[in-house]
């Protein structure tokens, strides 16, 4: 049925009759003709039989339209054909066909009205479709006209313009993207150029642009790459920031700070900067020390690199210690200078930015900027002490890593000078007193100085024991400032500095080290220059400046400018040191010329090689003290020991009375007068000369107890002193065997005594000269020690002249002979004599001989006026006391005898005044008062005994005994003797 319907649809509205002839041969075969239809209608129809026939048709015929009936039937043919069977089968097929055709015809006839009606509708629809086709054709034609006339001409232009704009925007975006893609190359170039602000600005702009084009897939990847690049820039920026810690460059640091400002990480940059400075200090000192350690090790062993810095410092050799320390301080100076210049940069930068902001929109950013600047300022100020503390700790570890006790003095002074300069840097850097450095260098200094001083004392003992006490020839203008050791003192005290230099000095000192070396150089490079200064030649060839000068002194003596200062004085009181105010006439000056035994030489200082050595030691000690004030007291104490030992040696060699009973220990000063019982002049000592003052006695006792090792001489096994106590002491020195003090021809070693004593006085004068400088260095709490040292020790140096020259005076004149001569004189004469006794002439000849020997000694060594005065004073005092002692030995005496005593004494005084210039004559009243006491009454004699204790008990007793019978009776004698006994009792 489907096939039939499809055929009908293709045929259109034609009637079946019209379209029958158009059917294909197969279709013609299937559709019965009219005659057949008529026959079928005419034949009787059995519906049931017809249905059976239709049902008998195979199902395959109803399967599909594409079924090939003919092929199907042909395939059903048996292999062997039978005509009868074929015809029967054919007839059966025809019946089936006829039944189907009849059925179809019946259906067609049954549906024909509907078919006709539907066909009409189809025809009408076809007509309408044809009309619509015409309308569409016309519309398309008009649209074609409109398209050609309007759309393509106008809207096309607009569309092209819009497309152009879109493409232009796209091109711009593409160019931006291309630029962004090539940004990393430019960033690398800018980083190589160290243009960090530009690189960060470019990177931030690229990030902003990338966020604009983030809708492109390629940009998202680029954005992450830019973030990585920005982090890389920050890392390189951090490295660039660390470079400023060693070598500060304004341009470089400005770029770095601008870059951090763009990043908004100013505070972070400051935190990082301090961390880098700390790291720079550590790395710098480690590399410097490591370099020297490896250089000195001389092998390829790299174990030093793994050591801690503190342990590494212990491997520095003494030879490389100072160069390494110098390089260490130079490197640390560079770091501190960089920090100082960093602070200067921020101060200048803050001044430039401190401009009031008028725009209200920028208030928040201005406040943030002010906060950042305040944070940076506080951080930098706080970092000063931290940086300096790190520097101190590093240098401390280096200082304490080596034992410097065996260093040479110049090397140790150089170390102290370097550390002193470093502490000055610290003072200017952050106002620090450098307690860490002071404590560490103090430890090393005390350790070094104890060993050094101990060695110097031993050397001084060796010098003293080998000293022959000859004058060391120096120029007349010799001054300790000329010595190399006192150069540092002469720069500030020397009057030879011109006023212009003095005026310019304060200006130079006002500049700090950071200002002086702001643009280059290093304060620690100056140390080498000190050794280049040559010491002035202070030695004279033979003790004279020149032959012309010596000659000029003798010829031009009338000129006051050439007269020694001592000769311009009338006399100097040895007790008070006062100088008379009145001036001296030229005639008096000429007459006094012979009293000074130094006119054959210029008044050059009298000193020995040992004295010069002590002075140089003092200069070295002062250098150490000047550089390192914390050990000033220790140094000054050791300086005082140098002087103490020298003073004690001079006294031990020349001040003891060699006529006293030998003793195993050192004699107690001041008591030797009572000990020397066997000496022929013992009664002179006990007669109140006061040769050694209580102050000098106390000083010598103190020196002996604190400095002199008495056990070293005896080497007793049972010594009570501990080894530590003995370590601080020095054995007592012994006089050289080359020095002879017993020859009368040389006045018992007077030349050596003069050289020794006057060199000690000269040394004391130098200490006096240095007192103000030492006082400024001494800590306030220890200044009483210095004052006591000067008042009780330095000032006693000149007092040694009395005991030393007294020994010469006691031996130079034969006082014993004079006593024997006086004992042979008869004093109980009855008439007044006009001629003096012989003993006076003998005594005066002794003085003339003494004067002659003084002149001979003066050819060897200059005898200053105070020395000659002391010698003459001693001789005169001893002579006068000998006279009193001789008068006290008289058993019988008359008034005429007393008059003879006065005559003898006046003759002695008259002749003596021609030999010496000392006025008044010492102990003149001592003799005259004793002689005149013979005429006193009983009451006056009793008062005389009480008031004149300078006379001995024997002398007073003899005075009373001689007067007995003349004007004093026995009762009075007993009374006076009792009074004498009362005076003597307290002495017992």
The coarse overall form would be: rod-shaped
Radius of gyration: 68 Å
Strand order of the largest sheet: 1-2
The class by helix and strand makeup works out as mainly alpha
The low-confidence parts are: 11-29, 492-509, 527-535, 542-596, 659-688
| Strand portion | under 5%
Q: Calculate the terminal CA-CA distance, rounded to whole Å.
A: 183 Å
Helix share bin: 55-70%
Instruction: Count every beta strand, where a strand is a DSSP E run of 2 or more residues.
Output: 2
Query: Describe the biggest sheet?
Result: 2 strands, parallel
Oligomer: single chain
Tell me the number of helical segments per DSSP (H or I, 4 or more residues long): 40
Mean pLDDT: 76
Report on this structure.
The radius of gyration is 68 Å and the shape is rod-shaped. It is built from 40 helices and two strands. Helix 23 (609-627) packs antiparallel against helix 24 (632-655) and helix 34 (838-860) runs parallel beside helix 36. Strands 1-2 form a two-stranded parallel ribbon. The chain is mainly α and 988 residues long. 67% of the residues lie in helices and 0% in strands.
């Amino acid at each position: 049925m489907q096939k039939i319907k499809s055929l009908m649809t293709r045929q259109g509205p034609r009637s079946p009759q019209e379209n029958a002839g158009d059917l294909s041969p197969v279709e013609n075969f299937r559709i019965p003709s009219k005659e057949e239809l008529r026959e079928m209608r005419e034949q009787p129809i059995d519906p049931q039989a017809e249905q059976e026939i239709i049902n008998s048709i195979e199902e395959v015929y109803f399967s599909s339209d594409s079924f090939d009936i003919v092929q199907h039937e042909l395939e059903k043919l048996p292999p062997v054909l039978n005509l009868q069977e074929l015809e029967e089968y054919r007839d059966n097929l025809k019946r089936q066909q006829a039944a189907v055709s009849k059925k179809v015809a019946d259906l067609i006839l049954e549906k024909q009205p509907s078919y006709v009606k539907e066909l009409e509708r189809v025809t009408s629809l076809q007509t309408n479709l044809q009309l619509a086709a015409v309308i569409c054709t016309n519309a398309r034609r008009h649209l074609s006209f409109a398209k050609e006339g309007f759309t393509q001409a106008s809207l096309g232009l607009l569309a092209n313009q819009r497309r152009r704009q879109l493409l232009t925007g796209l091109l711009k975006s593409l160019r931006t993207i291309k630029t962004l893609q090539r940004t990393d190359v430019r960033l690398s170039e800018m980083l190589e150029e160290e243009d960090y602000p530009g690189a960060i600005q470019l990177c931030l702009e690229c990030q902003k642009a990338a966020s604009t084009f983030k809708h492109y897939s390629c940009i998202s990847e680029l954005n992450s790459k830019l973030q990585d690049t920005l982090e890389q820039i920050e890392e390189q920026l951090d490295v660039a920031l660390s470079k400023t810690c060693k070598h500060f460059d304004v341009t470089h640091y400005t770029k770095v700070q601008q870059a951090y400002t763009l990043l908004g990480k100013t505070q972070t940059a400051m935190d990082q900067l301090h961390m880098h400075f700390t790291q720079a200090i550590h790395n710098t000192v480690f590399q410097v020390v490591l370099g020297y350690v490896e250089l000195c090790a001389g092998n390829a062993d790299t174990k030093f690199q793994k050591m801690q810095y503190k342990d590494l410092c212990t491997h520095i050799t003494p030879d490389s210690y100072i160069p390494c320390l110098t390089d260490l301080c130079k490197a640390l100076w560079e770091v501190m200078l960089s920090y100082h210049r960093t602070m200067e940069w921020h101060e200048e930068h803050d001044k430039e930015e401190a401009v009031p902001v008028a725009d209200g929109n920028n208030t928040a950013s201005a406040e943030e900027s002010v906060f950042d600047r305040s944070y940076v300022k506080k951080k930098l100020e706080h970092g000063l002490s931290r940086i300096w503390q790190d520097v101190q700790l590093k240098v401390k570890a280096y200082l304490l890593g080596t034992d410097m006790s065996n260093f040479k003095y110049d090397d140790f002074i150089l170390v102290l000078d370097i550390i002193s300069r470093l502490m000055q840097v610290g003072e200017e850097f952050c106002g620090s007193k450098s307690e860490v450095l002071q404590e560490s260098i103090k430890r090393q200094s005390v350790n070094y100085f104890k060993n050094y001083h101990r060695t110097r004392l031993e050397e001084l003992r060796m010098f003293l024991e080998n000293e022959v006490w000859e004058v060391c020839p120096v120029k007349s203008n010799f001054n300790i400032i000329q010595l190399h050791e006192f150069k540092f003192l002469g720069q500030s005290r020397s009057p030879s500095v011109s006023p212009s230099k003095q005026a310019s000095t304060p200006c130079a000192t006002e500049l700090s080290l950071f200002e002086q070396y702001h643009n280059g150089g290093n304060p620690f490079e100056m140390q080498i220059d000190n050794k280049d200064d040559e010491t002035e030649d202070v030695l004279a060839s033979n003790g004279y400046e020149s032959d012309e000068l010596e000659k000029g002194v003798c010829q031009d003596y009338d000129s006051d400018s050439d007269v020694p200062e001592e000769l311009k004085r009338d006399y100097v009181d040895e007790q008070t040191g006062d100088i008379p105010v009145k001036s001296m006439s030229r005639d008096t000056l000429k007459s006094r010329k012979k009293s000074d035994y130094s006119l054959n030489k210029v008044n050059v200082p009298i000193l020995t090689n040992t004295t010069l050595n002590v002075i140089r030691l003092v200069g070295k000690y002062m250098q150490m003290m000047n550089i390192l004030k914390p050990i000033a007291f220790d140094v000054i104490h050791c300086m005082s020991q140098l002087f103490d030992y020298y003073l004690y040696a001079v006294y031990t060699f020349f001040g003891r009375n060699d006529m006293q009973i030998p003793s195993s220990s050192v004699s107690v000063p001041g008591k030797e007068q009572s000990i020397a019982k066997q000496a022929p002049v013992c009664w002179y000592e006990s007669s109140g000369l006061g040769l050694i003052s209580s102050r000098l006695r106390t000083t010598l006792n103190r020196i002996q107890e604190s400095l002199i090792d008495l056990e070293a001489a005896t080497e007793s096994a049972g010594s009570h002193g501990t080894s530590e106590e003995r370590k601080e002491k020095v054995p007592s020195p012994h006089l050289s065997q080359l020095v002879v003090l017993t020859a009368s021809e040389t006045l018992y070693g007077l030349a050596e005594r003069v050289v020794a004593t006057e060199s000690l006085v000269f040394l004391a004068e130098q200490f006096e000269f240095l007192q103000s400088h030492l006082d400024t260095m001494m800590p306030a709490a220890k200044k009483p020690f210095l004052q006591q040292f000067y008042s009780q020790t330095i000032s006693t140096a000149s007092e040694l002249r009395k005991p030393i020259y007294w020994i010469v005076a006691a031996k130079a004149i034969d006082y014993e002979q004079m006593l024997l001569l006086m004992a042979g004189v008869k004093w109980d004469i009855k008439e007044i004599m006009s001629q003096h006794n012989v003993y006076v002439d003998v005594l005066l000849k002794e003085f003339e001989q003494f004067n002659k020997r003084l002149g001979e000694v003066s050819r060897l060594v200059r005898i200053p006026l105070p020395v000659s005065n002391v010698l003459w004073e001693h001789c005169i005092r001893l002579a006068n006391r000998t006279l009193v002692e001789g008068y006290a030995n008289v058993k019988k005496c008359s008034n005429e005898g007393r008059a003879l005593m006065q005559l003898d004494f006046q003759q002695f005084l008259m002749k003596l005044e021609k030999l010496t210039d000392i006025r008044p004559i010492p102990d003149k009243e001592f003799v005259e008062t004793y002689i005149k006491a013979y005429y006193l009454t009983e009451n006056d004699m009793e008062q005389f005994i009480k008031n004149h204790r300078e006379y001995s008990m024997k002398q007073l007793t003899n005075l009373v005994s001689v007067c007995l019978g003349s004007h004093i009776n026995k009762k009075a004698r007993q009374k006076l003797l009792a009074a004498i006994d009362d005076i003597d009792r307290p002495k017992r």
